[in-house]
Amino acid sequence: MPGHVILSHGSDTGPDATKVSALAKIAESMGWSTERPDYREDDKLGHAGSVEPRIARLHQRIAACAAPPVLVGSSMGAFVSGQASLELPVAGLFLLATPALIPGHDLAFDVRLDVSTLLIHGWRDEVCPLDEIYEFAGRRELPLLIVNDDHRLSEHVDAIGRQFGFFLEQLAKQR
């Protein structure tokens, strides 16, 4: 088995959300094990209030892994995945519609620099402005794929899936 993938959904969705479900199927078809933590209870605390409980929940899941997992996240799930990578070893970060900041919370988005990372964002993201994550990616020299879509990235689920498959293939070769 190539490894393990933890997929974190965005706020106001759940572990069966379209993108994380589609990406989990791709990973599983390639021999990776997957899990999708349920953050819905944490999300009842509001955006700023859910950050720390989500990170704590993700830390528990990472710590339970036999080897560093790949973290996949959408929106708030991307934000906490990046933050978790700063404290615990992970094999890769595949992050969608990532907010650079969570209004009302002190943490700014960040990732561990020695981890394979791909950011995907929509030109028309009405929730997480592109310019903020574009500036972050440029400052950190991280790959950023920008698609003609809004925050949900629903017009590009198949294209994102193909990128994810390629991302996992590259990580498997490194193991």
TrEMBL record:
Keywords: Hydrolase
Listed GO MF terms: hydrolase activity
Domain of life: Bacteria
Protein name: Alpha/beta hydrolase
Organism: Dyella humi
